Amino acid sequence: MTGVQALEHKYPDKLPLPGQCAKMEFEYIRHGTTSLIGFFDVATGRMEMPYLNSTRTEEDFVEAVKALAGTDPQAPWTFICDGLNTHKSEALVRYVAEACAPGMELGKKGKTGILKSMESRVDFLHDPSHRLRFVYTPKHSSWMNQIEIWFGIINRRTSTHTV
Hints:
Number of strands: 5
Helix content: 25-40%
Low-confidence stretches: none
Mean pLDDT: 88
Shape: elongated
Number of domains: 1
Strand order of the largest sheet: 1-2-3
């Protein structure tokens, strides 16, 4: 999941003088943002079901996961995510519990049970017995996350006008 900004440079680039690089103005005009939730299939190298929205809430993430998992409701799914709080949310736990362990007592957020803490929610979401399973990359390791690599490639290509 990432935010994509529509930016416009405030001033045009300055052409390079002999022996120098072009000068790019750092000021820009912001034309808004869009949240992109992407699912990268590492087996095929394809982006699956990209989800665009103006917000980046836990509900947005759950809706995107539901849409993807709904394409094959009986299949096992493993989602590799970074540590963003929306990837470990109460709403996500409730969805996974409904899909994998209906009727399971989840407790109360911040108080008891699976919903008690971020750590207890991660333990539940990471459970290998669930059909929907979430695996989290270590902190400071975006270089291991395939979707982050994909976003980086897209960013570099669009930044250098080579798409």
